[in-house]
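seq:
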Amino acid sequence: MSKFVWELTPQDLLEHSVWQFLHWKDDAEDETVVGPASESDAIDPNASLIVKAIFTDSNGDEFLGYVRFGQTGIANTQPCMFIGEATIGFWFGISKPDCSELRVLSFPITIVTKCAYDLPTQVEIMKGFGFFDLDSGSKVRYCEQDQP
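struct:
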């Protein structure tokens, strides 16, 4: 059961808390295709993983989502969470988003991974929607939003 990473659903994460990018084992695979990870794959230090996480906003509301495992910082974890049927991605890479068009959320958001196979828990505090600011030497910047 493989799919593009952007096709992951809350149900997928409830059924399999650890997913792997399949290209780390097979260069012929598209780099955006993921599949459920076995325990041996999940503990392999070369694995490229996505894991289930709980996102808690500053109001205490919780949402299901996922992050890239084993790395820190929004550029590396590339967090995504679900609100109803919508998938909210927080990382825009070198594309500066129009902050006025983004969903207003209650930042900061605390992310805590919840994955199988005794993988260590990761905790990250997310300040907002992030992007590389090419005008400042590719520093990570965050959109400023009016809080709800």
